[in-house]
Structure formats: C-alpha cells, structure tokens
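Quick one, T. Sequence first:
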Amino acid sequence: MSSPVKSWQRPEILLFLMAFAVPLSFAAWQALLNNFAIERAAFTGKEMGMLQSLREVPGFLAFGVVFLLLVLREQHLAIISLLLLGLGTVLTGFFPSVVGLSLTTVLMSLGFHYYETMQTSLAQQWIEKGRAAEIFGRLIAVGSFSAIIVFVLIWLGTHLFTIDYRWLYLGFGGLTISIASAAWVLFPQFPQHSVQNKHMVLRRRYWLYYALVFMSGARRQIFMVFAGFLMVEKFGFSVSNIAMLFMVNASLNVLFARKIGRLIARYGERNALLLEYVGLFLVFVGYAWVEVAWVGAALYILDHLFFALAISLKTYFQKIAAPEDIASTAGVSFTINHIAAVCLPVVFGLIWLTSPSLVFYIGALMALISFSLSLLIPRYPEQGRETSLSC
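Structure tokens:
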C-alpha cells in the first residue's frame, strides 16, 4: 500500500521547491560567467555572443519535449531537467576554455530550458486560471529569494574569501542536484486534469501569442547577454559588483513579483504588456546613451524588474488555449522564443565590436514592435477571442 499523502505534498509546494532549486545553479552560472569568461578564457564580445547563441540552442530544440513525453511524465521530466542543470553548472568551473565552456553551457542549458518548459506547462495545468497570475508571481519571488542567497554567497566567496570559480560552480550546482533528488523521492506523482497532445501543435488562432513570444526571446537576449557584458566591459564591474547588482534585482522580485501578478489579474494582460514595452523602449535607449556606471546599474535593475510583467504572456495563453494543447505548445513556444535567441547573440556580438550603442537601438525598435502587437490582445481574452481582430 502507498503511504498517505502529507499536507505539504501538494503540486504548488513541488513547483515552489523546484523554482527555488533553479537559481542555485542558473543564477550562479550567470553571475559568474562574464568575469569567468573574460579572466580565465580571454573572451571578447565576439566569443561571448557565440557562447550565448550556443546556450540558446537547447531552448530552440524545446519542441523535443513533445517526443520525450511519449516515454516520460511531465513531472519526472522536470526533475530530470533540474539534475542536468545542476550537473552542467558543477562542471563549468573545471573547463575554462572556449570548447569547455561551450560543452558545459549546452548541458546546463539543456536542463534549464527543458525545466522551464515543463514548469510552465505544469503550472498552467495544476493552477486554476483565477490564481495563475499570482502563483506565477510567487514562483518568481521564490526563485528570486533563492537567487539572493546565491548572490550573497558569491559576494562573500569572492570579496572576502577569494574562493576559486570552480568551487563556487561545484557548490551551487551540487545544491540543485540535491534538491532535485529530494523532489523525486519525497513527492508523489500528481495527476493531470487533461490528457496532453503528444505531438507538435501549431494553431493559427495562437498566432499573436507566437509573435509576442518570438519578440520576447529577442528582447531577453539583449538583457541576458549584452546588458551584463556592458557592465563588465565598459564600467569594469567585478564579480562582487555583479553579484550585488543581481541581488538587488532578486530582492525587488521578492518584494513585488507577487503584487505584479495580482495587478496583471486585475488590469489584464494587454495593459501589463503595453507598460512593459514602453518601459523597455526607454531602458534600451538609456543603455545606448549611458556613460555613468551608476546610471547603467539603475537601468539594469529597471530592465530586470520588467521581466515580472512577462507573466502576462503565460496567463494570456492559459486563457486562450485548449487544455490539451498546453504541454505541446509550451515546447513549441519555447522553440519560437529561441529562434531569435540562437541567431541574435552572434549577429549582435559582431555589431558590438563596432557599435555597442547600435545593439541597444535595435532593442528599442524591438520594444516598439512588441508594443504594436500587444495592442491586438483583447481586454478579456478566451478561446475564440484570441485577438481583437477575432472579437
């Protein structure tokens, strides 16, 4: 006989536990990467752009989860992905070269992107629509709290104790592996309310969602790759400086992500996305002009805060989607999101060599395009009412 389910063995708790585990590896990998690559592997913008494009290849291949779901349940696949994320992080510090970083980055990224795909799918299936925006906000807050712990430890480890990169990567990746193992053992297999399609789903009525996801992938690269690189290359931020900057970002998410989720539920996805893209336009123009380090840091913090508004894309799709399409579309949308992510870092890395400002001006143009697309979201989206054109 199976043991009785305990009060804490609930889908929400598992989602929160996994959300806590991810930044232990990914936030550490991200916070250390620019300095590690520049100091130990002599990276320039060109190599960094190539590495970041390579990092996004597993995201581009996220549609592959559809085929993995033929042999694995979503919950198990999410935990296995966490294990790969931790393992890739553990190995990163031991291979300070272009080839070594490329291989460990692909392994880490495979785990990260497949986990993110499964988290989105599971949350949309397990959480009712009325609470989805708030729960997504809480997931961001939990992940950000975990990231704060990472950044504090990195600051202490590099600023006070001068711990080598390899031991930092080893420690944080090992924690993710430990939590993923515990999640596998401690939680039962939770039921899914709808049988998910086990094939790729592309539906014409989701076209606006696909377009917004594509533009979101392009925008994310400018923040993930070049905004951070600007802080290190132009303003000479150290590892401890970057860790402090990331810690401020994570602290703001802990304070505001859940509230942002509630505001999205109250005012709607359309208004939230319009606000996000106006803000991003101003931030990207600011990056192009900035000459003072503290102003650049302020823009970086503001840029990151806008990420919480991206919850709107998830709740928008949850409202317009057929329940059986959620898992398949989660994989397909990650692939669409990463079409731009695979190509742009290399292209922008080459542009960066001659004009860093031009990279950010292009980002501002992308924000305007996203703003225009967001105008087509209905005030009350639902199946059959996916865009204002279909109202």
